[in-house]
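User: tokens in, sequence out, please.
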């Protein structure tokens, strides 16, 4: 092995080929990872944001117990209308979350 590296040209060409091979493997791995990531993004494009959905669930759980009093019938009616509008698709997720915030402020 020591006799191979006696000539500077052979040493240079050895490391040049080794470097080119490493760069090729890195680029191949990068392309593979990009393809995986684009596949994952394509699959999750229509999924609702998980944290917003969890926040909405917590807000609903906080609002519903407070609506038992007779003085809060109008808020209960607004909540029922809002939930029905969201279920039919007339209200977007961020708008739904914002309106729940305002109902939660009325209840608290």
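Assistant: Sequence out:
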């Amino acid at each position: 092995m020591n006799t191979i590296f006696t000539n500077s040209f052979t040493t240079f060409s050895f490391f040049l080929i080794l470097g080119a091979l490493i760069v090729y493997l890195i680029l191949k791995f990068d392309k593979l990872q990009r393809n995986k990531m684009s596949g994952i993004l394509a699959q999750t494009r229509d999924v609702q944001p998980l944290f917003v959905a969890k926040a909405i669930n917590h807000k609903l759980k906080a609002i519903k117990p407070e609506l038992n009093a007779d003085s809060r019938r109008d808020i209960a009616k607004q909540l029922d209308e809002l939930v029905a509008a969201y279920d039919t698709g007339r209200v977007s997720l961020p708008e739904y979350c914002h309106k729940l915030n305002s109902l939660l402020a009325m209840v608290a």
